[in-house]
Design brief:
Number of domains: 3
CATH class of the largest domain: Alpha Beta
CATH superfamily of the largest domain: Bira Bifunctional Protein, Domain 2
Bound molecules: adenosine-5'-triphosphate, magnesium ion
Structural class: alpha+beta
Number of strands: 31
CATH topology of the largest domain: BirA Bifunctional Protein, domain 2
CATH architecture of the largest domain: 2-Layer Sandwich
Number of helices: 16
């Protein structure tokens, strides 16, 4: 591709709403343009990378026996109603006015529709069906460029099995394919597991990439690869001390002291000597939750600890009714209702908490002695720097982007749509399904989030749109122009994808800047001075290293470097 005639509209400045590196760089390198909020057009350079990502995905899906489909994006609404998913998607689903159609946000229903009656015997199972296709979701806050779009490309795959053991196999195959895909794309990722443990197992795992642009917060251990959403993550952390001698309860006047920080400052003590109280309503009954110092109650964990039923924080008026005190002065002694505590407080003594009387706290609390009935659970949200629950290393807590998702669906869709097969005994059974998605734009964006510097993108094979950026420094010089043109042909004949900067009027500095911005793995610089010695210069984009070589060595050298 010759730059003089290519449509690669690079930009110096980007709109203010582009704040994350991948979004800025996609705009600056002319890969995408926004049409409307959350709706992006891919320009030739960007689409070239999308096609390369698609090919990698196809190869790995075919490798596990996947067969490619292409389903319509425009779907009859009726089929989505049969699984109650028009309601489940709510405003996220796009509806076509005056017609009973919706735009598909995913394709479980449609694949199940095609499986119905067509996969009628256990002998026809298993099957893995996939496609790479446009999805439509009316995301309330499209942002971060193509990472959260209202129209985006997804590779979605569906497995159909006759037994739960076979579903496990299909799931493992996808896990393997996903790892191969992201490895080949050169993306550093980790896997976050979530298992509901329900009968038949609705296990699911998410492939995540660390990024400030992400909307999930995860805890990750670099050393053993433990990873979990902070909603459920646990950590290894010191429990509060138990001193040999337990003081008896004593009241402390603490005027205007509301927070743990204020209490610690007022009494000149460490926050670990305090127990913070939070009151929740569970099934219309108050529950006091005790945390050590400033540790935060994790409401997902609280929900699992309490079990089935609605949990919500108490309103201030309710607090006064139940305890006779405001939020800053509540404590366990004399509370009179159910009390649970975080594991970290287990058997603590000489602790200070609220006295259930405004402007007073109570010291000398011994949980073992004063509250022997109290139940302990893991209730805190983990923080960076705490110990990994699986190994000796420390956890890192950060924001992450979900790149892909593998999910054991079970029979939810087969039941709703009546997708049955006949088992070995001739008995009708619902087909057991799995569903597996990868966002193609997210693969692209995540790669870019991990591969750039202050000068631009850093492409590596196999995602690089071109392998070589050939720069003719001065096209007005005949020797340079003809030698560069010769090299352009020769490189392409050897199988390389070449972007040739043959622009007549652009200065050398301008060409160098563009080459670094666009970021192809290798730059081959053809200049008058070097040509006199029959030499050219190769620059490796990722390291900035420059190598001067003889013209005859060009092809083998490029082969060696890529
Ligand atoms: P998220 O929690 O980020 O909204 P999701 O759980 O809705 O994702 P799935 O329904 O599992 O995502 O879709 C499979 C994959 O499709 C995701 O892992 C992600 O890579 C991609 N994806 C989902 N929503 C979008 C979107 N709005 N824009 C771009 N890609 C998306
Ligand atoms: Mg979503």
């Amino acid at each position: 591709m010759k730059l003089s005639s290519a449509f690669i509209p690079t930009l110096k400045e980007v709109p203010a709403d582009a704040v994350i590196p991948s979004h800025i760089l996609m705009l600056r390198t002319g890969m995408v343009r926004m049409l409307s909020a959350g709706i992006y057009s891919f320009l030739p350079l960007g689409y070239k990378v999308i096609k390369q990502i698609s090919e990698i995905i196809r190869e790995e899906m075919d490798e596990i026996g996947g067969q490619e489909f292409h389903l319509p994006g425009l779907n009859p609404k009726e089929i989505w109603e049969s699984t109650n998913r028009v309601e489940a998607f709510g405003d996220t689903m796009f509806h076509i006015k005056n017609r009973e159609y919706v735009l598909a946000p995913t394709h479980e229903e449609i694949m199940a529709f095609h499986a119905k009656g067509a996969l009628s015997s256990y002998k026809e199972l298993p099957q893995i069906w996939y496609q790479i296709q446009t999805k439509f979701r009316n995301e309330p806050r499209p942002r971060s460029g193509v990472i959260r779009g209202r129209q985006f490309l997804m590779k979605d795959a569906y497995s159909f099995d006759s037994t739960w053991e076979n579903l496990d196999k299909s799931y493992e195959l996808h896990d393997k394919a996903y790892r191969a895909i992201f490895d080949r794309c050169g993306i550093k990722y980790f896997v976050v597991g979530a298992s509901s443990g329900a009968m038949g197992g609705s296990k699911s795992e998410e492939f995540m990439v660390k990024s400030e642009a992400g909307e999930d917060t995860v805890a990750h251990c670099e050393s053993c690869n433990y990873a979990a959403n902070v909603e459920v993550a646990s950590s290894r952390i010191e429990a509060v001390n138990r001193s040999e001698e337990s003081k008896s309860n004593y009241e402390i006047s603490t005027p205007n002291v509301k927070s743990i920080d204020e209490l610690c400052a007022f009494l000149n003590i460490d926050e670990r000597q305090t127990a913070k109280s939070r009151v929740y309503m569970f099934k219309d009954k108050p529950v006091l939750v005790l945390m050590s110092g400033n540790d935060e109650v994790n409401e997902t964990k609280l929900g699992s600890a309490l079990g089935e039923g609605q949990v919500r924080p108490c309103h201030p008026e309710e607090l006064a009714d139940i305890t006779g005190a405001d939020a800053g002065s509540i404590g366990p002694i004399g509370f009179g209702h159910r009390i649970i505590a975080d594991n970290r407080l287990k058997d603590g003594n000489n602790l200070i908490s609220g006295a259930n009387k405004n402007d007073y706290h109570l010291g000398g609390i011994d949980f073992k002695r004063d509250l022997p009935e109290m139940e302990y659970f893991d209730l805190r949200t983990v923080e960076s720097g705490e110990g990994c629950p699986r190994c000796d290393a420390k956890l890192d807590v950060f924001r992450a982007i979900e790149l892909g998702h593998i999910f054991k669906l079970g029979t939810k869709y087969s039941d709703a749509l009546g997708v049955n097969f006949l088992d070995e005994n001739g008995k009708a059974q619902p087909i057991i399904m799995g569903s597996y998605g990868i966002g193609l734009e997210r693969v692209l964006a995540c790669y870019m989030e991990q591969n750039y510097d202050e000068r631009g993108v850093i492409w590596k094979k196999p995602l690089a749109p071109f392998d070589v950026h050939l720069i003719a420094l001065n096209m007005k010089n005949e020797t340079v122009a003809s030698k560069a043109a010769e090299m352009y042909d020769e490189l392409r004949k050897s199988g390389w994808q070449v972007l040739f900067d043959d622009r007549l009027d652009a200065s050398a500095g301008f060409k160098f800047n563009d080459a670094d911005l666009l970021g192809m793995p290798l730059q081959v610089v053809v200049g008058e001075k070097n040509l006199k010695e029959n030499m050219v210069e190769i620059k490796i984009r990722s390291t900035g290293e420059k190598i001067k070589i003889n013209l005859d060595e060009l092809i083998p050298k490029i082969k060696q470097l890529i």
